[in-house]
Task: inverse folding
Protein backbone atom coordinates (compact mmCIF):
# COMPACT_ATOMS: atom_id res chain seq x y z
CA UNK A 1 0.00 0.00 0.00
CA UNK A 2 2.67 2.41 1.02
CA UNK A 3 4.70 1.36 -2.00
CA UNK A 4 1.85 2.10 -4.36
CA UNK A 5 1.47 5.63 -3.06
CA UNK A 6 5.20 6.05 -3.34
CA UNK A 7 5.17 4.86 -6.93
CA UNK A 8 2.37 7.23 -7.83
CA UNK A 9 4.21 10.12 -6.27
CA UNK A 10 7.54 9.24 -7.85
CA UNK A 11 7.06 10.96 -11.23
CA UNK A 12 5.89 14.17 -9.56
CA UNK A 13 8.83 14.25 -7.19
CA UNK A 14 11.20 13.69 -10.09
CA UNK A 15 9.61 16.36 -12.22
CA UNK A 16 9.07 18.93 -9.48
CA UNK A 17 12.49 20.65 -9.21
CA UNK A 18 13.03 21.01 -12.95
CA UNK A 19 9.38 21.84 -13.56
CA UNK A 20 9.43 24.62 -10.99
CA UNK A 21 12.64 25.99 -12.52
CA UNK A 22 11.02 26.12 -15.97
CA UNK A 23 7.89 27.67 -14.52
CA UNK A 24 9.68 30.45 -12.63
CA UNK A 25 12.36 31.24 -15.19
CA UNK A 26 10.54 30.54 -18.44
CA UNK A 27 6.78 30.93 -17.99
CA UNK A 28 6.64 33.66 -15.32
CA UNK A 29 9.06 36.00 -17.19
CA UNK A 30 6.68 35.97 -20.16
CA UNK A 31 4.01 37.36 -17.84
CA UNK A 32 6.29 39.99 -16.31
CA UNK A 33 7.27 41.02 -19.82
CA UNK A 34 3.64 41.36 -20.88
CA UNK A 35 2.87 43.35 -17.76
CA UNK A 36 5.90 45.59 -18.23
CA UNK A 37 4.86 46.36 -21.79
CA UNK A 38 1.66 47.88 -20.41
CA UNK A 39 3.37 49.97 -17.74
CA UNK A 40 4.56 53.53 -17.81
CA UNK A 41 7.53 55.13 -16.16
CA UNK A 42 11.28 54.96 -16.43
CA UNK A 43 14.12 52.96 -14.99
CA UNK A 44 15.04 55.57 -12.37
CA UNK A 45 11.59 56.33 -10.94
CA UNK A 46 10.13 52.89 -11.45
CA UNK A 47 7.18 51.66 -13.46
CA UNK A 48 3.48 51.66 -12.75
CA UNK A 49 0.89 49.47 -14.39
CA UNK A 50 -1.48 51.68 -16.36
CA UNK A 51 -2.64 49.34 -19.12
CA UNK A 52 -1.00 51.69 -21.56
CA UNK A 53 -1.78 50.11 -24.97
CA UNK A 54 -0.44 53.17 -26.74
CA UNK A 55 3.10 51.78 -26.29
CA UNK A 56 2.22 48.98 -28.71
CA UNK A 57 0.81 51.37 -31.27
CA UNK A 58 3.84 53.64 -31.04
CA UNK A 59 6.35 50.78 -31.07
CA UNK A 60 4.82 49.10 -34.08
CA UNK A 61 4.51 52.28 -36.09
CA UNK A 62 8.08 53.35 -35.28
CA UNK A 63 9.67 50.02 -36.05
CA UNK A 64 7.44 48.37 -38.60
CA UNK A 65 10.22 48.59 -41.22
CA UNK A 66 12.54 46.56 -38.99
CA UNK A 67 9.82 44.05 -38.09
CA UNK A 68 8.92 43.44 -41.71
CA UNK A 69 12.59 43.35 -42.73
CA UNK A 70 13.37 40.72 -40.07
CA UNK A 71 10.54 38.51 -41.23
CA UNK A 72 11.65 38.88 -44.86
CA UNK A 73 15.31 38.14 -44.05
CA UNK A 74 14.23 35.16 -41.98
CA UNK A 75 11.98 33.86 -44.75
CA UNK A 76 14.58 34.33 -47.50
CA UNK A 77 17.26 32.65 -45.37
CA UNK A 78 14.88 29.76 -44.65
CA UNK A 79 14.08 29.22 -48.33
CA UNK A 80 17.78 29.28 -49.26
CA UNK A 81 18.44 26.88 -46.39
CA UNK A 82 15.90 24.34 -47.66
CA UNK A 83 17.49 24.44 -51.11
CA UNK A 84 21.03 24.12 -49.73
CA UNK A 85 20.34 21.57 -47.01
CA UNK A 86 18.06 19.11 -48.76
CA UNK A 87 20.68 17.67 -51.16
CA UNK A 88 23.18 17.43 -48.29
CA UNK A 89 20.76 15.54 -46.06
CA UNK A 90 19.66 13.39 -49.00
CA UNK A 91 23.17 12.40 -49.97
CA UNK A 92 24.21 11.57 -46.41
CA UNK A 93 21.03 9.58 -45.71
CA UNK A 94 21.11 7.52 -48.91
CA UNK A 95 24.75 7.51 -50.00
CA UNK A 96 26.62 8.17 -46.75
CA UNK A 97 27.12 4.45 -46.15
CA UNK A 98 29.27 3.69 -43.14
CA UNK A 99 30.50 7.27 -42.94
CA UNK A 100 27.13 8.87 -42.19
CA UNK A 101 28.07 9.90 -38.67
CA UNK A 102 31.40 11.29 -39.87
CA UNK A 103 29.65 13.55 -42.37
CA UNK A 104 27.14 14.67 -39.76
CA UNK A 105 30.01 15.42 -37.40
CA UNK A 106 31.73 17.54 -40.06
CA UNK A 107 28.51 19.51 -40.55
CA UNK A 108 28.43 20.20 -36.82
CA UNK A 109 32.04 21.47 -36.67
CA UNK A 110 30.97 25.16 -36.55
CA UNK A 111 29.29 24.49 -33.21
CA UNK A 112 32.70 24.06 -31.64
CA UNK A 113 33.40 27.73 -32.28
CA UNK A 114 31.48 30.49 -30.57
CA UNK A 115 28.57 31.82 -32.64
CA UNK A 116 29.80 35.43 -32.28
CA UNK A 117 33.33 34.49 -33.27
CA UNK A 118 32.19 32.66 -36.41
CA UNK A 119 30.14 35.65 -37.47
CA UNK A 120 33.03 38.04 -36.85
CA UNK A 121 35.22 35.76 -38.91
CA UNK A 122 32.78 36.16 -41.80
CA UNK A 123 32.97 39.90 -41.32
CA UNK A 124 36.72 39.66 -41.77
CA UNK A 125 36.34 37.53 -44.93
CA UNK A 126 33.74 39.79 -46.51
CA UNK A 127 35.32 43.13 -45.55
CA UNK A 128 36.40 45.56 -48.28
CA UNK A 129 40.07 44.83 -47.63
CA UNK A 130 39.37 41.10 -47.19
CA UNK A 131 40.25 38.15 -49.44
CA UNK A 132 37.03 38.32 -51.46
CA UNK A 133 36.36 41.94 -52.32
CA UNK A 134 39.92 43.29 -52.64
CA UNK A 135 41.08 40.84 -55.39
CA UNK A 136 37.86 41.50 -57.30
CA UNK A 137 38.55 45.21 -57.04
CA UNK A 138 42.22 45.01 -57.99
CA UNK A 139 41.52 43.06 -61.18
CA UNK A 140 38.86 45.64 -61.95
CA UNK A 141 35.96 43.22 -62.02
CA UNK A 142 34.03 45.45 -59.64
CA UNK A 143 34.25 49.14 -58.87
CA UNK A 144 35.23 50.81 -55.60
CA UNK A 145 31.60 51.22 -54.72
CA UNK A 146 31.16 47.47 -54.54
CA UNK A 147 30.73 46.11 -51.03
CA UNK A 148 29.54 42.86 -49.56
CA UNK A 149 29.89 43.70 -45.88
CA UNK A 150 27.07 45.96 -44.77
CA UNK A 151 24.61 44.71 -47.36
CA UNK A 152 21.52 42.58 -46.91
CA UNK A 153 23.34 39.83 -48.85
CA UNK A 154 25.96 39.60 -46.12
CA UNK A 155 23.33 39.51 -43.36
CA UNK A 156 21.22 36.83 -45.05
CA UNK A 157 24.40 34.93 -45.94
CA UNK A 158 25.41 34.99 -42.28
CA UNK A 159 21.99 33.75 -41.19
CA UNK A 160 22.15 30.92 -43.74
CA UNK A 161 25.65 30.01 -42.61
CA UNK A 162 24.87 29.99 -38.90
CA UNK A 163 21.64 27.99 -39.10
CA UNK A 164 22.49 25.46 -41.83
CA UNK A 165 22.98 22.48 -39.46
CA UNK A 166 19.52 23.12 -37.97
CA UNK A 167 18.01 22.54 -41.41
CA UNK A 168 20.19 19.59 -42.44
CA UNK A 169 19.64 17.55 -39.26
CA UNK A 170 15.81 17.36 -39.20
CA UNK A 171 15.63 16.63 -42.94
CA UNK A 172 18.28 13.97 -42.46
CA UNK A 173 16.35 12.40 -39.57
CA UNK A 174 13.19 12.27 -41.72
CA UNK A 175 15.00 10.78 -44.74
CA UNK A 176 16.82 8.28 -42.59
CA UNK A 177 13.50 7.00 -41.27
CA UNK A 178 12.24 6.09 -44.76
CA UNK A 179 11.97 2.33 -45.15
CA UNK A 180 14.19 1.39 -48.11
CA UNK A 181 11.56 -1.16 -49.10
CA UNK A 182 9.11 1.66 -49.85
CA UNK A 183 11.59 3.20 -52.28
CA UNK A 184 12.21 -0.22 -53.76
CA UNK A 185 8.49 -0.81 -54.16
CA UNK A 186 8.23 2.44 -56.14
CA UNK A 187 11.02 1.22 -58.42
CA UNK A 188 9.34 -2.16 -58.83
CA UNK A 189 6.20 -0.37 -59.91
CA UNK A 190 8.24 1.31 -62.67
CA UNK A 191 8.52 4.77 -61.15
CA UNK A 192 11.61 6.48 -62.56
CA UNK A 193 13.99 8.17 -60.09
CA UNK A 194 12.39 11.59 -60.58
CA UNK A 195 8.89 10.28 -59.92
CA UNK A 196 10.13 8.20 -56.97
CA UNK A 197 11.62 11.34 -55.49
CA UNK A 198 8.57 13.50 -56.06
CA UNK A 199 5.90 11.00 -55.05
CA UNK A 200 7.65 8.96 -52.36
CA UNK A 201 10.80 10.46 -50.90
CA UNK A 202 9.87 14.14 -50.81
CA UNK A 203 6.44 13.68 -49.14
CA UNK A 204 8.05 11.46 -46.51
CA UNK A 205 10.78 14.07 -45.92
CA UNK A 206 8.28 16.90 -45.54
CA UNK A 207 7.90 16.62 -41.73
CA UNK A 208 11.68 17.07 -41.53
CA UNK A 209 11.52 20.13 -43.75
CA UNK A 210 8.81 21.63 -41.53
CA UNK A 211 10.85 20.92 -38.39
CA UNK A 212 13.83 22.54 -40.12
CA UNK A 213 11.79 25.61 -41.05
CA UNK A 214 10.72 25.97 -37.42
CA UNK A 215 14.26 25.55 -36.12
CA UNK A 216 15.75 28.10 -38.54
CA UNK A 217 13.07 30.71 -39.20
CA UNK A 218 12.49 31.47 -35.51
CA UNK A 219 16.13 32.09 -34.54
CA UNK A 220 16.97 33.72 -37.90
CA UNK A 221 14.22 36.32 -37.83
CA UNK A 222 14.89 37.20 -34.19
CA UNK A 223 18.67 37.28 -34.58
CA UNK A 224 20.67 40.42 -33.97
CA UNK A 225 24.26 39.20 -34.11
CA UNK A 226 24.43 38.75 -37.89
CA UNK A 227 22.81 42.06 -38.73
CA UNK A 228 24.99 43.89 -36.20
CA UNK A 229 28.29 42.34 -37.35
CA UNK A 230 27.66 41.89 -41.07
CA UNK A 231 25.08 44.59 -41.76
CA UNK A 232 24.77 48.35 -41.66
CA UNK A 233 22.16 50.94 -40.72
CA UNK A 234 20.08 49.86 -43.71
CA UNK A 235 19.84 46.25 -42.59
CA UNK A 236 18.81 46.74 -38.95
CA UNK A 237 16.65 43.89 -37.73
CA UNK A 238 14.07 43.98 -34.96
CA UNK A 239 16.32 41.99 -32.64
CA UNK A 240 18.85 44.82 -32.71
CA UNK A 241 16.13 47.34 -31.87
CA UNK A 242 14.88 45.23 -28.95
CA UNK A 243 18.40 44.68 -27.68
CA UNK A 244 19.21 48.40 -27.84
CA UNK A 245 15.91 49.42 -26.21
CA UNK A 246 16.56 47.06 -23.30
CA UNK A 247 20.29 47.34 -22.80
CA UNK A 248 21.21 50.79 -24.12
CA UNK A 249 18.14 53.02 -23.81
CA UNK A 250 16.54 51.11 -20.91
CA UNK A 251 13.13 51.80 -22.43
CA UNK A 252 11.66 48.63 -20.98
CA UNK A 253 8.00 49.17 -21.95
CA UNK A 254 8.78 49.75 -25.63
CA UNK A 255 11.29 46.90 -25.69
CA UNK A 256 8.80 44.56 -24.00
CA UNK A 257 6.03 45.55 -26.39
CA UNK A 258 8.28 44.88 -29.39
CA UNK A 259 9.38 41.55 -27.91
CA UNK A 260 5.78 40.61 -27.41
CA UNK A 261 4.81 41.48 -30.96
CA UNK A 262 7.74 39.47 -32.30
CA UNK A 263 6.98 36.55 -30.00
CA UNK A 264 3.29 36.60 -30.93
CA UNK A 265 4.13 36.43 -34.63
CA UNK A 266 6.67 33.63 -34.15
CA UNK A 267 4.89 31.65 -31.45
CA UNK A 268 1.63 31.54 -33.37
CA UNK A 269 3.62 29.78 -36.05
CA UNK A 270 5.32 27.51 -33.50
CA UNK A 271 2.08 26.43 -31.85
CA UNK A 272 0.31 25.89 -35.14
CA UNK A 273 3.24 23.67 -36.02
CA UNK A 274 3.02 21.78 -32.71
CA UNK A 275 -0.74 21.28 -33.08
CA UNK A 276 -0.54 20.05 -36.64
CA UNK A 277 2.67 18.05 -36.68
CA UNK A 278 3.42 17.28 -33.03
CA UNK A 279 6.57 18.05 -31.11
CA UNK A 280 8.43 14.80 -31.74
CA UNK A 281 10.48 15.76 -34.81
CA UNK A 282 12.01 18.82 -33.18
CA UNK A 283 12.67 16.98 -29.93
CA UNK A 284 14.38 14.17 -31.80
CA UNK A 285 16.84 16.58 -33.35
CA UNK A 286 17.39 18.27 -30.00
CA UNK A 287 18.32 14.89 -28.54
CA UNK A 288 21.20 14.46 -30.98
CA UNK B 1 22.40 -1.13 -46.03
CA UNK B 2 20.40 1.70 -47.57
CA UNK B 3 23.11 2.43 -50.09
CA UNK B 4 23.12 -1.13 -51.29
CA UNK B 5 19.41 -1.18 -51.81
CA UNK B 6 19.43 2.06 -53.69
CA UNK B 7 22.44 1.45 -55.85
CA UNK B 8 21.40 -1.99 -56.91
CA UNK B 9 21.05 -1.81 -60.69
CA UNK B 10 17.48 -2.59 -61.64
CA UNK B 11 18.36 -3.40 -65.22
CA UNK B 12 21.28 -4.80 -67.11
CA UNK B 13 24.38 -2.70 -66.34
CA UNK B 14 23.99 -0.41 -69.33
CA UNK B 15 24.22 3.37 -69.29
CA UNK B 16 21.78 3.88 -66.44
CA UNK B 17 23.77 2.82 -63.37
CA UNK B 18 26.75 4.79 -64.58
CA UNK B 19 24.68 7.92 -64.93
CA UNK B 20 23.29 7.45 -61.46
CA UNK B 21 26.79 7.11 -60.02
CA UNK B 22 27.76 10.39 -61.69
CA UNK B 23 24.71 12.05 -60.12
CA UNK B 24 25.61 10.77 -56.69
CA UNK B 25 29.23 11.71 -57.30
CA UNK B 26 28.17 15.24 -58.16
CA UNK B 27 26.17 15.45 -54.95
CA UNK B 28 29.09 14.02 -53.01
CA UNK B 29 31.23 16.88 -54.30
CA UNK B 30 28.48 19.31 -53.33
CA UNK B 31 28.41 17.95 -49.76
CA UNK B 32 32.15 18.54 -49.47
CA UNK B 33 31.72 22.04 -50.87
CA UNK B 34 29.17 22.79 -48.14
CA UNK B 35 31.52 21.36 -45.50
CA UNK B 36 34.34 23.53 -46.84
CA UNK B 37 32.08 26.57 -46.65
CA UNK B 38 31.15 25.71 -43.06
CA UNK B 39 34.79 25.31 -42.09
CA UNK B 40 36.09 28.42 -43.91
CA UNK B 41 35.48 30.99 -41.13
CA UNK B 42 36.91 28.54 -38.59
CA UNK B 43 40.05 28.26 -40.71
CA UNK B 44 40.28 32.06 -40.87
CA UNK B 45 39.89 32.27 -37.09
CA UNK B 46 42.65 29.70 -36.54
CA UNK B 47 44.96 31.36 -39.10
CA UNK B 48 44.66 34.82 -37.54
CA UNK B 49 45.70 33.37 -34.19
CA UNK B 50 49.10 32.92 -35.86
CA UNK B 51 49.17 36.41 -37.38
CA UNK B 52 52.19 38.54 -36.49
CA UNK B 53 50.13 41.69 -36.11
CA UNK B 54 51.73 44.49 -34.10
CA UNK B 55 48.83 45.23 -31.77
CA UNK B 56 45.17 44.71 -31.22
CA UNK B 57 44.19 45.35 -34.82
CA UNK B 58 44.08 41.88 -36.36
CA UNK B 59 42.49 42.30 -39.77
CA UNK B 60 45.27 41.94 -42.32
CA UNK B 61 47.81 39.16 -42.65
CA UNK B 62 51.31 40.27 -41.64
CA UNK B 63 53.33 37.12 -41.05
CA UNK B 64 53.42 33.85 -39.15
CA UNK B 65 54.12 33.77 -35.43
CA UNK B 66 53.51 31.66 -32.35
CA UNK B 67 53.80 34.65 -30.01
CA UNK B 68 50.09 34.95 -29.19
CA UNK B 69 50.14 31.43 -27.81
CA UNK B 70 52.84 32.59 -25.42
CA UNK B 71 50.91 35.75 -24.52
CA UNK B 72 47.62 33.89 -24.20
CA UNK B 73 46.81 35.04 -20.67
CA UNK B 74 48.24 38.54 -20.94
CA UNK B 75 44.88 40.27 -21.21
CA UNK B 76 43.44 39.90 -17.74
CA UNK B 77 39.89 40.91 -18.79
CA UNK B 78 39.84 38.22 -21.45
CA UNK B 79 41.23 35.56 -19.13
CA UNK B 80 38.70 36.54 -16.48
CA UNK B 81 35.89 36.30 -19.04
CA UNK B 82 37.01 32.83 -20.10
CA UNK B 83 37.23 31.65 -16.49
CA UNK B 84 33.74 33.05 -15.81
CA UNK B 85 32.40 31.23 -18.87
CA UNK B 86 33.90 27.92 -17.83
CA UNK B 87 32.69 28.21 -14.23
CA UNK B 88 29.15 29.09 -15.33
CA UNK B 89 29.18 26.23 -17.84
CA UNK B 90 30.27 23.72 -15.18
CA UNK B 91 27.70 24.80 -12.58
CA UNK B 92 24.82 25.21 -15.00
CA UNK B 93 25.45 21.94 -16.84
CA UNK B 94 25.57 19.98 -13.57
CA UNK B 95 22.39 21.65 -12.29
CA UNK B 96 20.59 21.20 -15.60
CA UNK B 97 21.90 17.63 -15.66
CA UNK B 98 20.30 16.85 -12.30
CA UNK B 99 16.99 18.63 -12.96
CA UNK B 100 16.74 17.45 -16.56
CA UNK B 101 17.48 13.84 -15.68
CA UNK B 102 14.58 13.87 -13.21
CA UNK B 103 12.19 15.13 -15.86
CA UNK B 104 13.57 12.87 -18.57
CA UNK B 105 13.37 9.78 -16.36
CA UNK B 106 9.82 10.54 -15.25
CA UNK B 107 8.65 11.19 -18.82
CA UNK B 108 10.29 8.06 -20.13
CA UNK B 109 9.15 5.76 -17.36
CA UNK B 110 5.80 6.89 -15.93
CA UNK B 111 2.45 7.99 -17.27
CA UNK B 112 1.27 10.84 -15.12
CA UNK B 113 -1.03 13.80 -15.20
CA UNK B 114 0.68 16.93 -16.48
CA UNK B 115 3.14 15.04 -18.69
CA UNK B 116 1.54 16.59 -21.76
CA UNK B 117 1.88 20.17 -20.56
CA UNK B 118 5.41 19.48 -19.39
CA UNK B 119 6.24 18.26 -22.89
CA UNK B 120 4.74 21.42 -24.32
CA UNK B 121 6.79 23.68 -22.01
CA UNK B 122 9.95 21.79 -22.96
CA UNK B 123 9.11 22.14 -26.63
CA UNK B 124 8.49 25.85 -26.06
CA UNK B 125 11.87 26.38 -24.37
CA UNK B 126 13.65 24.57 -27.20
CA UNK B 127 11.88 26.43 -29.98
CA UNK B 128 11.42 29.89 -28.44
CA UNK B 129 13.65 32.64 -29.76
CA UNK B 130 16.59 33.16 -27.41
CA UNK B 131 16.04 36.88 -27.68
CA UNK B 132 12.59 36.54 -26.08
CA UNK B 133 13.81 34.19 -23.34
CA UNK B 134 16.66 36.54 -22.48
CA UNK B 135 14.57 39.68 -22.65
CA UNK B 136 11.74 38.25 -20.55
CA UNK B 137 14.19 37.02 -17.90
CA UNK B 138 15.62 40.53 -17.80
CA UNK B 139 12.14 41.91 -17.07
CA UNK B 140 11.68 39.33 -14.29
CA UNK B 141 15.00 40.18 -12.66
CA UNK B 142 14.37 43.89 -13.11
CA UNK B 143 10.92 43.76 -11.53
CA UNK B 144 12.26 41.70 -8.62
CA UNK B 145 15.20 44.13 -8.44
CA UNK B 146 17.70 41.29 -8.57
CA UNK B 147 21.19 42.42 -9.49
CA UNK B 148 22.47 40.88 -12.73
CA UNK B 149 25.67 38.83 -12.77
CA UNK B 150 27.10 35.33 -12.81
CA UNK B 151 24.19 33.98 -10.75
CA UNK B 152 21.49 35.27 -13.09
CA UNK B 153 23.46 34.00 -16.11
CA UNK B 154 23.66 30.55 -14.50
CA UNK B 155 19.92 30.56 -13.73
CA UNK B 156 19.20 31.39 -17.37
CA UNK B 157 21.56 28.73 -18.73
CA UNK B 158 20.04 26.05 -16.50
CA UNK B 159 16.59 27.13 -17.76
CA UNK B 160 17.36 26.63 -21.45
CA UNK B 161 19.47 23.48 -20.90
CA UNK B 162 16.98 21.45 -18.81
CA UNK B 163 14.82 20.53 -21.79
CA UNK B 164 17.79 19.33 -23.84
CA UNK B 165 19.05 17.09 -21.04
CA UNK B 166 15.52 15.79 -20.37
CA UNK B 167 15.02 14.96 -24.07
CA UNK B 168 18.28 13.02 -24.26
CA UNK B 169 17.61 11.09 -21.04
CA UNK B 170 13.98 10.36 -21.94
CA UNK B 171 15.07 8.81 -25.25
CA UNK B 172 17.39 6.43 -23.37
CA UNK B 173 14.88 5.52 -20.66
CA UNK B 174 12.24 4.66 -23.25
CA UNK B 175 14.49 2.13 -24.98
CA UNK B 176 15.57 0.59 -21.69
CA UNK B 177 15.08 -3.16 -21.31
CA UNK B 178 12.78 -3.53 -18.29
CA UNK B 179 13.50 -7.25 -17.89
CA UNK B 180 16.89 -6.44 -16.37
CA UNK B 181 15.19 -4.47 -13.61
CA UNK B 182 12.62 -7.22 -13.12
CA UNK B 183 15.41 -9.75 -12.78
CA UNK B 184 16.97 -7.60 -10.05
CA UNK B 185 13.63 -7.37 -8.27
CA UNK B 186 13.15 -11.14 -8.55
CA UNK B 187 16.49 -11.60 -6.90
CA UNK B 188 15.21 -9.59 -3.95
CA UNK B 189 16.62 -6.14 -4.66
CA UNK B 190 14.55 -3.25 -3.30
CA UNK B 191 13.42 -0.62 -5.87
CA UNK B 192 16.00 1.78 -4.43
CA UNK B 193 18.86 -0.70 -4.86
CA UNK B 194 17.59 -1.70 -8.31
CA UNK B 195 17.61 1.92 -9.42
CA UNK B 196 21.13 2.72 -8.26
CA UNK B 197 22.71 -0.63 -9.15
CA UNK B 198 20.92 -1.38 -12.44
CA UNK B 199 18.94 1.47 -13.95
CA UNK B 200 21.22 4.39 -13.21
CA UNK B 201 24.39 2.82 -14.68
CA UNK B 202 22.41 2.07 -17.86
CA UNK B 203 21.13 5.62 -18.30
CA UNK B 204 24.39 7.20 -17.13
CA UNK B 205 25.85 7.62 -20.65
CA UNK B 206 22.71 9.55 -21.65
CA UNK B 207 22.97 11.73 -18.54
CA UNK B 208 26.61 12.31 -19.38
CA UNK B 209 25.91 13.35 -22.97
CA UNK B 210 23.07 15.57 -21.72
CA UNK B 211 25.45 17.32 -19.33
CA UNK B 212 28.01 17.73 -22.12
CA UNK B 213 25.37 19.22 -24.38
CA UNK B 214 24.35 21.63 -21.61
CA UNK B 215 28.02 22.56 -21.09
CA UNK B 216 28.44 23.28 -24.80
CA UNK B 217 25.23 25.32 -24.95
CA UNK B 218 26.27 27.34 -21.92
CA UNK B 219 29.85 28.14 -22.89
CA UNK B 220 28.80 29.31 -26.37
CA UNK B 221 25.67 31.19 -25.41
CA UNK B 222 25.60 34.83 -26.32
CA UNK B 223 22.05 36.12 -26.72
CA UNK B 224 20.45 35.04 -23.43
CA UNK B 225 23.69 35.83 -21.60
CA UNK B 226 23.77 39.33 -23.06
CA UNK B 227 20.43 40.09 -21.38
CA UNK B 228 21.18 38.50 -18.01
CA UNK B 229 24.83 39.46 -17.49
CA UNK B 230 24.75 43.04 -16.28
CA UNK B 231 28.39 44.07 -16.17
CA UNK B 232 29.73 40.51 -15.88
CA UNK B 233 31.67 39.42 -18.95
CA UNK B 234 31.73 35.90 -20.38
CA UNK B 235 33.94 34.82 -23.27
CA UNK B 236 31.32 35.50 -26.01
CA UNK B 237 30.39 38.81 -24.34
CA UNK B 238 34.04 39.89 -24.28
CA UNK B 239 34.29 39.19 -28.01
CA UNK B 240 31.09 41.12 -28.65
CA UNK B 241 32.36 44.08 -26.67
CA UNK B 242 35.70 44.00 -28.47
CA UNK B 243 34.27 44.07 -32.02
CA UNK B 244 34.31 47.86 -32.18
CA UNK B 245 37.81 48.32 -30.78
CA UNK B 246 39.32 45.29 -32.54
CA UNK B 247 39.49 41.66 -31.56
CA UNK B 248 42.85 40.86 -29.93
CA UNK B 249 44.66 37.82 -31.43
CA UNK B 250 44.37 36.06 -28.06
CA UNK B 251 40.67 35.62 -28.79
CA UNK B 252 41.56 33.68 -31.94
CA UNK B 253 43.99 31.54 -29.97
CA UNK B 254 41.41 30.77 -27.28
CA UNK B 255 38.80 30.06 -29.95
CA UNK B 256 41.26 27.68 -31.60
CA UNK B 257 42.03 25.90 -28.33
CA UNK B 258 38.33 25.58 -27.42
CA UNK B 259 37.63 24.25 -30.91
CA UNK B 260 40.48 21.73 -30.73
CA UNK B 261 39.47 20.55 -27.24
CA UNK B 262 35.83 20.18 -28.25
CA UNK B 263 36.61 18.25 -31.42
CA UNK B 264 39.12 16.02 -29.66
CA UNK B 265 36.65 15.32 -26.86
CA UNK B 266 33.85 14.50 -29.29
CA UNK B 267 36.05 12.18 -31.34
CA UNK B 268 37.38 10.36 -28.27
CA UNK B 269 33.94 9.85 -26.65
CA UNK B 270 32.58 8.73 -30.02
CA UNK B 271 35.31 6.12 -30.46
CA UNK B 272 34.91 4.94 -26.88
CA UNK B 273 31.13 4.62 -27.15
CA UNK B 274 31.55 2.70 -30.40
CA UNK B 275 33.93 0.34 -28.68
CA UNK B 276 31.55 -0.28 -25.78
CA UNK B 277 28.61 -0.96 -28.12
CA UNK B 278 30.75 -3.49 -29.90
CA UNK B 279 31.61 -5.36 -26.72
CA UNK B 280 27.96 -5.39 -25.59
Result:
Amino acid sequence: MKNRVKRQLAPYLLVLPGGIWLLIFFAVPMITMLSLSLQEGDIVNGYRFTGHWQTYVDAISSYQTQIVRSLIYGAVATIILIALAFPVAYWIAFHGGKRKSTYLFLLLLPFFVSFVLRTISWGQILADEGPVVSPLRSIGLVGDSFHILGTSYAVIGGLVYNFLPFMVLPIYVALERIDPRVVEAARDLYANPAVTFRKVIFPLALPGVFAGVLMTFVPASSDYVNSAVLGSAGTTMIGQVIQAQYLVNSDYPTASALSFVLMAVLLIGVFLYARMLGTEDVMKVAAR
Amino acid sequence: MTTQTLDRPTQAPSLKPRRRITGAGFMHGYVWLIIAWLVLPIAVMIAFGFNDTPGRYNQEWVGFTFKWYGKLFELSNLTQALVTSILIAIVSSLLAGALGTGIGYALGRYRFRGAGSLNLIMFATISSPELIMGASLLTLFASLQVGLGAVTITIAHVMFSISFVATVVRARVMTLDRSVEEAAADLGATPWVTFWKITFPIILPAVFSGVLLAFALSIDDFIVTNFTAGTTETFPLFIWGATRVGIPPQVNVMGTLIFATGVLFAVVTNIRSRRTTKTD
